[in-house]
Amino acid sequence: MKEIIEVELKTRKVDFSKCETELLAVGQFSDAKGLDKVSGELNSKLDGAIERLIKLGDFKGKEGTNAIVYGNGKIGAKRVLLVGLGERKKATLDTIRKAAANAANKAVAMEIEAISLALHKVFGGRFDMSAMGRAMGEGTYFGSYRYDEFVTESEDGRLSSLGVEVIDSDSAKTKKLNKGVTRGAVIGRAQSYARTLTNRPANVMNPVKLAAAAKELARGYERLSCTVFDEKQLAAKGMGGVLAVGSGSQNKPRFIVLKYSPASKAASRLPTVGLVGKAITFDSGGISIKPAANMEQMKLDKTGGIAVLGVMKAVAELGLPVNVYGIIPAAENLPSGTSYRPGDIITTFSGKTVEVQNTDAEGRMILCDGLHYAVKQNCEFIIDIATLTGSCRIALGTYMAGLMGNDERLIKQLRRAAEDSGEKVWPMPSGDEYAEEMKSKMADLKNTGSKWGGACTAAAFLRQFVGDTKWAHLDIAGMEVFEKATEFSAEGSSGFGVRLLATYLMNLSGK
Q1: I want to staple 190 with a disulfide (CB 3.0 to 4.6 A). Which of 270, 287, 314, 440 is the partner?
Q2: Is residue 33 among the annotated active site residues?
Q3: Catalytic status, residue 269
Q4: CB proximity list for 213: less than 8 A, separation 6 or greater
Q5: Average of pLDDT values for 491-499?
């Protein structure tokens, strides 16, 4: 398999008009009265080319658009890329992140090996320099990402690497930008790592292979450890949920536990966060089999678990002062003579029993074991993330993830992290009225509710396994994939959740 595009990211102090580069990216608002200082200076040296382009209506500054003006030897850049930012009043840090992704995506498409970003200048002092640097770093990785590990022939001969620099003519600003760019690169690499593992098909990435990837990741960081429970250990511990879901496949389930312990001597006094991610490496639905159409996308049902893996990579690299467990129950849900069946009653790790009404409601069956394991590790906060229900996609579309939980402060912290990271969430209920629907006459619980409010009843089911621990649930169904390429990203896994949860942990630790 070939490697994905390697991104080399740095900052540099240099005058914008003198910056020698293949492509210089600058931002433009759609409602701007004129050009900002940087674009104005470039326009003057380009003999008015930028103004002419705008007056012709060939570039209107709408978000997601871009246009190229070619150099004339009077500036250092061979090309100037005008990147649309939309309306100024609506601009956020995510506007900058998307603009960087737009520029990086365009560079890869044009096979340009080195680009320079001056996207922050048009925002003036509206945002913190470090925050803008981080957003550009994250966006650069996001936009340049391509998944083609198994493409043996390529007509376009795509880039093997992309060099990106964030530039400013002021050394003090460059220093602040660099602080953010460094962090953005860490998070961007982690998200690309997660996208690659998630994109890999089920014949390449099964529970055993995922466990091996987790162990390999842990070996790279001194403060990160990894423990894996195989099917025998799962049986000995009574993790009936994970075992049931994985019972139909010859690829046996695994329960992956990553633990990050900060270097601080005061680590015992720091909060402990448990991240629990659903990793169904392929979901056929089991005996309650799914329709054939689009079933190939069910390799993406491991998105939540691999997002946790990506977050643990970022946390270890950033050295955050917070204790974190990354808990990933992994299984392959297939129909066979050994599969679990509708009507089966499963005893979970917590001791609670669950009546199986639909084997395609498998995510909650493995998450309940993961959640109770996090409780047993004395985690103060538990957040689970999963492509859990089609109902959430019906409710929210492909624009934001569902957010549910039992602690308003934790929910507010995740909403803030969503705003900071650009990975959007929307709060939804999961209270007692929904929990009532999940009660069974045959067991403690059943694994499906009525046809209405499926995302809420699924969360209410999970809530039964956390006790009094502060808990939040992210249903990311609909957010895990770009079904077709956009101006910001190639098609395939989005790696959703890596930026969101890494940002939450950074905010929690004061970083």
Answers
A1: 314
A2: no
A3: no
A4: 197, 205, 309
A5: 98
